[in-house]
């Protein structure tokens, strides 16, 4: 395997323990993006995780479990990502961290999309991208509201974020008919995390109730 630069080596020591804690902080939110075969196609699937220490590198992987394949940053380090391959089964994952403290929620969304685009463009395996133009602030607000309304109508408060994913995704996409915008998955995920009490209400866009 090609030797990685020292800054990537520093990213590579211990994230497995951190991602199991599911501690989400607005200033240090990490999205673990696992790339896996689904119905013959490779797709990006989101799940919530976090690093909460605030000390040392934000992305660390256990080198006994992961081989690092590369990484990068956007927005002068506000967004960071690392591509890795699990040694045990050869599966690929991309780990992303977003430093969105001080950003309003729509700008935090734009940071996420830029980071996702950068990670996708350098991914060692193909990824499926959302269709449509980037959601406007109004469209993203509408999508988050639909997602939250769906959760309230279908699940008790505090329901784990992954439980309502299929229902929320269906409702949000359906609300936009044949003209989806890019960011509907993000809107649904944020609503599910807030509803599961993993993120604060303030992480919803202004106007979502």
Task: Give the tags.
209 residues, 6 helices, alpha+beta, five-stranded antiparallel β-sheet
Measured on Cα atoms, how large is the radius of gyration?
17 Å
Order of helices and strands: HHEEEEEHHHH
What about the largest sheet?
Answer: 5 strands, antiparallel
Per DSSP E runs of 2 or more residues, the count of β-strands stands at 5
Fraction of residues in β-strands: 15-25%
User: Given the C-alpha coordinates, what overall shape results?
Assistant: globular
Low-confidence stretches: 1-28, 30-56
Characterise the protein shown here:
- With 209 residues, the chain is an alpha+beta fold.
- The chain contains six helices and five strands, in the order H-H-E-E-E-E-E-H-H-H-H.
- Helix 4 crosses helix 6 and helix 5 crosses helix 6.
- The N terminus is likely disordered.
Topology:
Layout: H1 6-10, H2 15-19, E1 29-38, E2 41-50, E3 66-74, E4 79-86, E5 92-98, H3 105-121, H4 137-154, H5 165-175, H6 184-195
Antiparallel strand pairs: 1-2, 1-5, 3-4, 4-5
Helix pairs in contact: 4-5, 4-6, 5-6
Structure described in brief:
By secondary structure, the protein is of the alpha+beta class. The protein is 33% helix and 21% strand.
């Amino acid at each position: 395997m090609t030797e990685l630069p020292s800054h990537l080596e520093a990213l590579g020591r211990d994230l497995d323990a951190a991602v199991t804690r599911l501690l989400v902080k607005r200033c240090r939110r990490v999205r673990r993006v696992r790339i896996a075969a689904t119905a013959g196609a490779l797709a990006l699937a989101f799940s919530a995780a976090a690093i909460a220490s605030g000390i040392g590198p934000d992305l660390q992987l256990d080198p006994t479990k992961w081989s690092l394949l590369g990484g990068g940053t956007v927005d002068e380090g506000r967004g960071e990502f690392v591509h890795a391959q699990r040694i045990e089964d050869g599966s690929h994952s991309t780990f992303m961290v977003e430093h969105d403290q001080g950003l309003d929620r729509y700008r935090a969304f734009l940071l996420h999309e830029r980071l996702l685009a950068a990670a996708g463009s350098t991914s060692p395996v193909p990824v499926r991208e959302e269709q449509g133009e980037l959601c406007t602030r109004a469209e993203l607000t509408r999508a988050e509201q639909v997602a939250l309304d769906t959760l309230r109508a279908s699940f008790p408060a505090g329901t784990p974020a992954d439980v309502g994913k299929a229902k929320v995704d269906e409702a949000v996409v359906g609300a936009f008919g044949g003209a989806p915008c890019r960011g509907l998955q993000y809107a649904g995920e944020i609503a599910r995390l807030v509803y599961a009490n993993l993120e604060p209400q303030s992480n919803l866009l202004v106007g979502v109730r």
